[in-house]
Design goal:
The structure is a single chain. The chain is an alpha+beta fold. It folds into two domains: about 110 residues, no CATH class; about 375 residues, no CATH class. Pfam families: ASC. GO terms for molecular function: ligand-gated sodium channel activity. One of its GO terms (cellular component) is plasma membrane. It is a multi-pass membrane protein.
Length: about 500
């Protein structure tokens, strides 16, 4: 038997293959026009098959076709939100006197201490503008946060009394006074300094220290959720996990120039492992002398582990330890955004706002940096740099949102009799803003939304096989048959030899 040439090899395989058109292409008896037709048809079928294959491949490996399964979870598996309460008016009048300082600034009559007082006031007073060129003193060595801490309201001036279950009037360590984007505020149920920040954070942030250790993480939940006395405090329907507080602010000691036309308090809900950022959901308690019942609801999110094969951009979230931050130990979307905004401010202005996470050697922005800082804030608000931050949410996440909010006059006794005695308000005069709040989780199911790829691998194999069969007439058995015959082609008779032998026999006969 003669050696097998490539042409004969292709002719043999095309003859026994079920792939459509190959037999016509390899057959010497097929006319030239027919061969052109079948070659064109074969190429078009192959290209069509390849085009649809790319679409199927994209659904499986590039942009997942997502689906979600919703189940219910026990409340005790998740923490009560961290609650941060900030008064609208940030500065006592006796400590700021902004109107007087601005008048003196225009006439260049400020002393060095008054210049410092004006610079400090500008840190927390929104949209406060003045000609910083008239400030001649250098305050680079001044600890801005320490100075703010001394002049702003303390915990007892904002929340003189609060009740959490059986814990009455215990402001420490349940409440912590911290500095935020809204000045000094009071926060509840937040993690300790050592559990929120890395070692690279500035020492100013040690005001977040309260000494209570947690056994909860966002990725893994509580270590032992059935143990009593867990921190952060768990959600439940029990009255022991209801936050009740009296909020008070002295109207006679408020600098109206700092936050004009606003009275009352802002209440923010966020995760216990986050600091307060401008992106957190909030409630504005503008109505004073009211008893407020605030109910929130929570929803848990989880991404199936099989989604790890997709890129972060495709699944739009980070799995645990997939993204690390410079200043925070726990990755959350809000922590990422505030760190990104801080880095942008440092990059463009050479400084960071006093409340932004920053390194030990980074200076705090002052009045002469206000134009640059305002531009960075505006760009971030317009989402110009949002996507460059890559601040996708974690794949295991927990979100809080307002469910209902009702209020009543204090005289109506809406919930006053349930939590406080009237004697608690004896020290409240007409010169004070008084607000009562009760915060608890709503009586609604806690939903766990689990996302997964709706397009599984077996579907991919099925669709790919269907495309090959439809466009090319190819199947698994076709491929097996080709491989089998490729190894056994030497045992097959050669067609051309058979034709020549038959011709000789005909002539002999």
């Amino acid at each position: 038997m003669k050696s097998i040439t490539k042409r004969k090899f292709f002719k043999f395989l095309s003859r026994i293959s079920t792939i459509h058109g190959l037999n016509y292409i390899s057959d010497r008896k097929t006319s030239k026009k027919s061969k052109i037709f079948w070659i064109t048809a074969f190429i078009l079928s192959f290209l069509g098959c390849f085009f649809f294959f790319l679409q199927v491949y994209e659904k499986v490996f590039v942009v997942p076709d997502m689906s979600a399964k919703i189940t219910y979870e026990p409340f005790v598996l998740h923490p009560f939100p961290a609650i941060t309460i900030c008064p609208y008016n940030k500065l006592p009048y006796k400590a700021s006197k902004i109107a007087d300082l601005l008048e003196k600034l225009d006439s260049s009559e400020l002393t060095a201490d008054e210049e410092l007082q004006l610079e400090i006031s500008s840190q927390t007073c929104q949209k406060m503008t003045y000609n910083s060129e008239n400030i001649v003193s250098n305050f680079s060595e001044i600890n801005i946060v320490d100075y703010l801490s001394k002049i702003q309201f303390n915990k007892s001036e904002i929340i003189p009394k609060f009740i959490l279950g059986d814990h009455i009037n215990q402001t420490d360590p349940f409440l912590t006074r911290v500095f935020t984007c809204n000045g000094f505020c009071v926060t509840f149920n937040q993690l300790d300094f050592d559990e929120i920040f890395t070692n690279e954070i500035h020492d100013d942030f040690k005001v977040y220290s309260h000494g209570r250790k947690s056994n909860w993480t966002l990725a893994n939940g509580y270590t032992y959720p059935d143990e009593p006395g867990l921190y952060p405090i768990q959600m439940s329907f029990s009255s022991s996990n209801t936050f009740n507080a009296i909020l008070i602010q002295n109207k006679m000691n408020i600098d109206e120039q700092c936050r004009p036309f606003r009275r009352g308090f802002e209440i923010y809900f966020h995760l216990p492992n986050e600091i307060l950022t401008p992106f957190a959901p909030s409630i504005n308690l503008n109505n004073i002398n009211k008893d407020n019942l605030i109910q929130f609801k929570a929803e848990s999110f989880e991404m199936s582990s099989d989604m790890k094969t997709y890129s972060v951009e495709a699944r739009q979230c980070y799995f645990y330890a997939e993204r690390n931050l410079q200043f925070f130990k726990s990755y959350t979307e809000n922590n990422c955004q505030i760190e990104c905004l801080s880095n942008k401010t440092i990059e463009q202005c050479g400084c960071a706002k006093y409340h932004m996470p920053r390194g030990k050697d980074t200076r705090i922005c002052m009045g002469n940096d206000s134009v640059c800082v305002s531009k960075v804030d505006a760009d971030h608000d317009l989402k110009i740099d949002y996507y460059s931050c890559d601040c996708y949410p974690p794949c295991t996440d927990l979100k809080y949102e307002l469910f209902s909010w009702t209020d009543a006059d204090l005289d109506d006794g809406f919930s006053l009799g349930d939590h406080f005695n009237l004697d608690d308000l004896n020290n409240v005069s007409d010169r004070k803003i008084t607000t009562l709040i009760t915060i608890k989780n709503a009586i609604t199911p806690l939903l766990l939304r689990t996302s997964f790829s709706a397009y599984q691998m077996q579907q991919f194999i099925s669709d790919f096989g269907g495309l090959l069969s439809l466009a090319m007439g190819c199947s698994i058995l076709s491929i097996v048959e080709l491989i089998y015959n490729a190894f056994n082609i030497k045992n097959e008779p050669d067609d051309e030899d058979d034709d020549e032998e038959n011709l000789k026999n005909c002539k002999t006969n």
